[in-house]
Predict the structure.
Amino acid sequence: MVPAEQDGSERVVLKVRAADPALSHQSLLSGAEHERLAGMHEGARPAFVTARGMLREALGDYMGLLPGAVPLMQEGAGRISIEGFSEDEPPYFSVSHTGAAEAGIAAVLVAESCAVGVDIQQLDPSVDWRRLAERRYPAEDWALLSAMSDEIGRLLFFTLWSIREAFVKMEDGKLMPYLRNVKLDLTARPPRLAAPTPGGHEDAFIYFHFEPDHNLMIAVVAEKPVDLDLDCDIRPSERRPDPLQNRGGE
């Protein structure tokens, strides 16, 4: 792992990459992951394979294992876990991916000191953000958002969404209660919680960042302060024909 800073906070690296349409990380996947992949729509495969490959590489570095040997488990659409490890012991990790095919992006974060959550969202111009904010967000958020221009309001809407979904991942919660009940003070520096989360956290590290070239909002939350290093290198890969048949050696 990356060494801790002098103030005691752990330095963690958030890795963000373009999804690889060639599915070049396929060789790292387990049998169960290959079954999951085969059942996916083609457009969803690049981000899934890229995210799982990045996660396996990061956890392999932490655990001293080859990426393909990391014993990842997932039941249905539930949380990813490591066989033989409880949820309250390191390594802690979080994964997010968005978009489809060549437009997909994946993000992975691994930490040793505390639970973390990461979420990335591409600002979709087709989303009726005003309607969603009025229905899903706290009344005080809607009062603020409803007075904003479309451009600024959309950016804040996705900022709030990303942060709240990152808390969902950190606490293994359900999205709808978090959209309504995670209350944030984004005017504070750094940002802070204005009320306890549904999972009971009264304080947390909160980070958000916007990548305008890719219309991408990035959010990270952690139980404790961390020194976050954003490693964002989104360069689209060239697509190969029939990528699901490519097992990495062709």
